[in-house]
Amino acid sequence: MKKYINYYILFVELRTKSASVFPFLGGFLYYVVYLANSNGGIHWLNLFVLVIVIHMIDVATTALNHYLSFDQEKEAPSSYQLHILDLMKELKISMKTNRNILIIMYSIAFVFSIILFFITNIGVILLGLLCAAVGFFYSFGPKPIAHTPFGEIFSGGIQGIVMPVVVIFSQYNHLPWELNPFIALVFLPFAFLIGSIMLDNNICDLDFDITNNRYTLAYYLGKKNGVKALNLSCICTILSVYLCIVVNLLPWWFIICTIMIIPLFKNVKLFSIDMIKEKSFMFILKNYILFSLCYIVLFIVNIFIK
User: Fold this and answer.
1) Does 201 fall in a domain?
2) Which of 154, 236, 260, 278 has a CA 20 to 30 Å removed from the CA of 108?
3) From residue 7, how far is each of 44, 56, 79, 229, 266 by CA, in Å?
């Protein structure tokens, strides 16, 4: 049983799903600080159902990517996928079983989406459909988004901005367009940093992607300019915090986040030394975790100060 659980964890890349946790918490904490008191408090059922829907779509998107790679056999598998294939052979797991896993995950997401439809508002449904569509076409179709230069924009935008806004909408009892549309700016740092993780991954996989006719942003930028783009993303992350303070979306003490520019640049420099996934990928991931932890802690502090 342990090996089968391990296979599922590998198949859906469960360890990478922590990337969704920080934007989700950001949206929830923003609601708690600025909207909960005037909106009937926290609606825990809505939150619970939304967690299930988001998680199922997230893991199904990753699993679909692996399933299509295995099924079509048009691409040379990566070292990670080779590990999954070896485990498939050892456990005698067929492609039909993988397909059934996908069907179960998408079915759970669909059922809970219907529940969400009846207990929330149109904003959650529309943005949820957008997330589901992007998640599906991220890996599927004649030209999946992940194989194009737009992967960073879609992954950063959906996970970093749309997800926390969906969390806010799921708690909001009124029409979603009554909210200040500029609240999306609060979550720009997540978008920049998640996009950086995607770019980091594509820089490391550049040769492998070219072999498999995947022309990602890293292909058009090259590794040297890709590193410059990572540094630019760090700058934009900090500037977006300043912007939110200036337009009064965040209190002035969020300026504390700007000290994170030092470790952000340091980790990009460490990444640029080798740009090999096994050695370098963790440095850009550290940037995301470090900044996000700082951001989330300030939101929590804000609950007690406001």
Assistant:
1) yes
2) 154
3) 32, 17, 15, 35, 35
CA–CA separation, 209 and 203 (whole Å): 9
* 206 and 285 fall within a common domain: yes
Q: State the chain's mean pLDDT as an integer.
A: 86
CA–CA gap between residue 166 and residue 176 (Å, rounded): 10
pLDDT level of residue 298 (50, 70, 90 thresholds): very high
Residue 158: which residues within 8 A CB-CB, separation 6 or more?
Answer: 130, 131, 134, 135
Q: Helix, strand or coil for residue 149?
A: coil
Backbone φ and ψ for 241, nearest 5 degrees, come out as: -65, -45
* Mean pLDDT along residues 251-279: 89
CA–CA distance from 291 to each of 22, 236, 261, 270, 275 (Å)? 10, 13, 9, 17, 21
Using alpha carbons, select from 219, 31, 227, 232 the residue that is nearest to residue 123: 31
Q: Do 184 and 285 fall into the same domain?
A: yes
Residues 165 and 195 in one domain: no
pLDDT tens for 148-193 read 999 999 999 999 999 999 999 888 766 656 777 788 999 999 999 9
Give me Rg for the CA atoms of the chain.
20
Residues 2 and 143 in one domain: yes
Domain finish residue from 172, 207, 236: 172
Asked whether residue 214 is domain-assigned, the answer is yes
What CA–CA distance (Å, rounded) separates 206 from 200? 10
The tally of domains found in the chain comes to: 2
Same domain membership, residue 231 and residue 153? no
Last residue of a domain, one of 172, 192, 213: 172
Long-range residue pairs from 79-83, CB within 8 A, at least 24 positions apart, any chain: 80/10, 83/10
C-beta neighbour count of 260 within 10 angstroms = 21
Residue 116 pLDDT > 60: yes
Assess whether pLDDT exceeds 60 at residue 74.
no
Q: What is the pLDDT of residue 94?
A: 83
